[in-house]
Amino acid sequence: MATMESLIGLVNRIQRACTVLGDYGGDTALPTLWEALPSVAVVGGQSSGKSSVLESIVGRDFLPRGSGIVTRRPLVLQLHKTEPGLQEYAEFLHLPKKKFTDFSMVRREIQEETDRVTGKSKQISPVPIHLSIYSPNVVNLTLIDLPGLTKVAVEGQPESIVQEIELMVRSYVEKPNSLILAITPANQDLATSDAIKLSREVDPTGERTFGVLTKLDLMDKGTNALEILEGRAYPLQHPWVGIVNRSQADINKNVDMIAARRREREFFAASPDYGHLASKMGSEHLAKLLSKHLESVIKSRIPGITSLINRSIDELESELDHLGRPVAIDAGAQLYTILELCRAFDRIFKEHLDGGRPGGDRIYGVFDNQLPAALRKLPFDRHLSPQNVRKVVSEADGYQPHLIAPEQGYRRLIDSALNYFRGPAEASVDAVHFVLKELVRRSIGETQDLKRFPTLQAEIAAATNEALERFREDGKKTTLRLVEMESSYLTVDFFRKLPQEVERGGNPTAPTTADRYTEGHFRRIGSNVSSYVGMVSETLKNTIPKAVVHCQVKEAKRSLLDHFYAQLGKKEGKQLAQLLDEDPMLMERRQQCAKRLELYKSARDEIDSVSWTR
User: Fold this and answer.
1) Which one of 70, 315, 357, 485 is CB 3.0 to 4.6 Å from 351, fit for a cystine?
2) Closest CA to 55 of 45, 42, 67
3) Predicted TM-score (pTM) above 0.70
4) Do 182 and 146 contact (CB within 8 A), yes or no?
5) Helix pair 584-609, 283-323: axis angle to 10 deg
């Protein structure tokens, strides 16, 4: 059967783990586990006795003291009950490996840690200090000491500090899982109590509020606080608790808290006003009352907490699957991982080319649109104009004009015309090259597991770019060779089939000397060459795509990473590990997820193992 101590201790351990992992506060998709667990926010005006109440509950003198605003940062105080006889000690979250057994050093560290963030001014900060105290003299509790509420700013403080403190306190007490410990001094009019006023606003039903009346021993003679303590003046759902603080003289004499607790018990037992309430008064009773109520709250909220934990486990496991599991240390396993990642990338790249993913159709666009358009734009009209034909033919003839047909002129015109095809051929190769580079880039980005390894990503990108450059060079050589082949050997039958001039008697004859240099003659030559170039253009429009696909696309599908694989086989274990060097932010995120998953699973197991009476 679970005891109150074990149940609250379980929550305390989970809260402690949450703070260590940084799972405290912040905006998340689900409420954090910390926020789902109950804690006690200590609220009161400045000099209301908050510090004395906390020290009484802990049984140790460990909080900074002074006039004005002393608590300038929230103090998240987690009390862990230990076995009797064990030494008491304290730990700060910002000093996880240091144990404090001297509680005067705890007070000093709180002051120094406060000054580290706020400076030695009277400024405040919402950044909490996390302190855990392990002692056999405490009950398992999480208490949050907040800056004291005030109505005016003192020297050295901005005018906005009144509102800043209230907003900070509200951010804690407005949470539905927060219990409110409203501290009010008995020698102050309850109607002016900042703590009661604020708790009434955020908890109008009083379900979460515990009223604490301090400094009962300092009330004017002949007066008492029975009307409040008995719930007649200001009734709450939970009974009021009276506290007797240590006097300043006791503090100056270093009277320990155990003795102070004994004097407090004696005060109530001997008081004619409060004697009948003695069993329900004092800091020890307050601690037990809070623990008992926390037990009840925890029991009622365990199903919701369990549901939250299960949802968090599912989300974290899903994220870990997305982030990928940690990399193996063994060199063989690392090589296998790299090869698997390369195959995954290669598979996606081929899907782009083959139509399973978008992008491969752009290569066909180069052949169907860009290449024909480039061929149509070639300046053959200018090159084969009568004026240019006359110039080329005359230069080819030299000092001896051609006798029949200007063969040398024809050849020069054809050679220079065919040279224009080099541009579209090279442009086709370059266009496909850039499409392939873009598909590589896209494929690397779409290989999810590869995102973990920026070094391997860069190596694959470099290796594929080098391979594509080789394929491009081969493609250019092949397509330019096609153009050169057309220039190397002209199709003679084409010219034999050209219509020849016919004499009136019906016999073909060569043009006369007078006809050779007329514009009509040069226009016919240009027309003949244009027809031949057109035939070659149609041929190249079909053969250039074949060469490009063969040299670039097919090779990219077949051997894009072959050179990389060859180099990979020569690498040693350390070099393989460097390739699998993950993004530090991703590694940190996986580590955080793994720790939080471990926390949630541990919390679930502990909750499942705890049973309690209804």
Assistant:
1) 357
2) 42
3) no
4) no
5) 130
